[in-house]
Task: structure prediction
Amino acid sequence: QVQLVESGGGLVQNGGSLRLSCAASSTIFSLYTMTWYRQAPEKQRELVASITRSGRTNYTDSVKGRFAISRDNVKKTVYLQMNSLKPEDTAVYYCNTFPSQLPWGQGTQITVSS
Result:
């Protein structure tokens, strides 16, 4: 079964940047639309950004112009470049397919201080 491992999170100041990575354990990764989700405390998990097999991207309105999703099918990795971070971006970030079909990884915590 495909496993997903997220990394790259941390504590950053308001306006800062981070780059997240999500590594998959199987080459079938290239067959999926991959998506970054996030879950803030006491809130439901929400879709942040997605990228199709061909590279078409989609973003939730709150991150448009600030975040960029990309993928490297050879490395079986999807990335999320996050710029101009805001305190409301604070959450645990996860990657998965769209719709989510794989076991969830442990996620990576992003904390943006004001």
The mean pLDDT is 95. The CA atoms of residues 1 and 109 lie 24 Å apart. The beta strands are 4-7, 10-13, 18-24, 34-39, 46-51, 57-59, 67-72, 77-82, 91-97, 108-113. The first strand starts at residue 4 and ends at 7.
